[in-house]
């Protein structure tokens, strides 16, 4: 029986490219695997897959009775809804350890790096499996995306070295140019419905029993949101009610200015002041130097909820 390799709900480039890269590796070492996804491709991910000649992985939402290798998360809220009825055989991730549990031993590759694909590159090295040029290309792009072309505080020396090695395998001469092309695709928001934008890179977190949704949109210039910011604010308010969430936050990240404007709807009026030392004014707060949801946004929020 083949295992399914799948990332989180509302998959980003790391989840999709990681599932493809890890499934290939597993097949090469005699462990049958199928890449899968829990949602639609983002425009950036579609751009990456088209650039290197890949189709989207199989769309599959039910995994009861299946063997599953989890990519890019270890949170129940981000996993398949029926993950409790599946057998988790492995996890590869670069986030904090979440609340997924298993009844049997499993393989875990979890490292404090900027991207799951960096960890997967380490796995290829460990098993001494040659990486095909097209897979190297999508892995490189996933790392560039997650590390914001090395600008993110999550970026490590390992991420940079992996990108350099993968670019050479893929035959990419200027990987930073490819990275900018990816972020130009991300910045093209005109004509896209507000809900599609809010959910483009959105994750739910259980914070001390409170459901908190955090979305992020990374662009080259925040001016692209000038005409639609009110629509985004109205939509995250709806999303909060629809999901019975305590809070919904949307990060509008300017990768050139290296900071984020956070749009906030919350049951706690002082949430951002407790978490970041900056009050929310009219539902908005600017967080200078904040690029990473994983390292700069989530931990401070979790601390704030623990102190309630």
From TrEMBL:
Keywords: Calcium, Hydrolase, Manganese, Metal-binding. One of its GO terms (molecular function) is metal ion binding. Mn(2+) 2 binds at residues 14, 72, 94, 146. Residues 179-305 form the DHHA2 domain. SMART domains: DHHA2 (SM01131). Mg(2+) 2 binds at residues 12, 146. Mg(2+) 3 binds at residues 14, 72, 94, 146. Its cofactor is Mn(2+). Gene3D superfamilies: DHHA2 domain, inorganic pyrophosphatase (n-terminal core). It catalyses: diphosphate + H2O = 2 phosphate + H(+). Ca(2+) binds at residues 98, 100. Coiled coil: none annotated. It holds the Pfam family DHH. It comes from the Bacteria. One of its GO terms (cellular component) is cytoplasm. Mn(2+) 1 binds at residues 8, 12, 72. Mg(2+) 1 binds at residues 8, 12, 72. Its EC number is 3.6.1.1. This is inorganic diphosphatase. It comes from Shewanella sp. AS-11. The gene is ppia.
């Amino acid at each position: 029986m083949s295992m399914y390799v799948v990332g989180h709900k509302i998959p980003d480039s790391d989840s999709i490219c990681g599932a493809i890269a890890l499934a290939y590796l597993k097949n090469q070492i005699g462990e049958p695997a199928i890449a899968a996804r829990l949602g639609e491709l983002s425009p950036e991910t579609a751009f990456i897959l088209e650039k290197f000649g890949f189709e989207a992985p199989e769309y599959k939402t039910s995994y009861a009775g299946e063997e599953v290798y989890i990519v890019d998360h270890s949170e129940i809220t981000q996993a398949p809804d029926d993950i409790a009825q599946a057998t988790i055989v492995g996890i590869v991730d670069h986030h904090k350890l979440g609340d997924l549990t298993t009844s049997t031993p499993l393989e875990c590759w979890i490292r404090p790096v900027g991207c799951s694909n960096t960890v997967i590159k380490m796995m290829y090295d460990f098993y001494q499996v040659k990486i095909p040029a097209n897979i190297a290309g999508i892995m490189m792009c996933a790392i560039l995306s997650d590390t914001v072309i090395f600008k993110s505080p999550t970026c490590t020396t390992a991420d940079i070295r992996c990108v350099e090695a993968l670019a050479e395998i893929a035959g990419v001469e200027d990987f930073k140019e490819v990275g900018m092309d990816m972020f130009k695709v991300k910045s093209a928001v005109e004509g896209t419905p507000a809900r599609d934008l809010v959910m483009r890179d959105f994750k739910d977190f259980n914070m001390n029993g409170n459901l908190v949704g955090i979305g992020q949109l990374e662009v080259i210039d925040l001016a692209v949101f000038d005409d639609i910011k009110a629509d985004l604010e109205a939509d995250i308010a709806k999303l909060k009610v629809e999901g019975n969430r305590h809070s919904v936050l949307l990060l509008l990240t300017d990768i050139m200015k290296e900071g984020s404007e956070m749009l906030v709807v919350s049951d706690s009026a002082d949430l951002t002041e407790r978490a970041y030392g900056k009050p929310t004014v009219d539902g908005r707060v600017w967080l200078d130097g904040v690029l990473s949801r994983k390292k700069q946004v989530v931990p401070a929020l979790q601390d704030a909820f623990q102190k309630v």
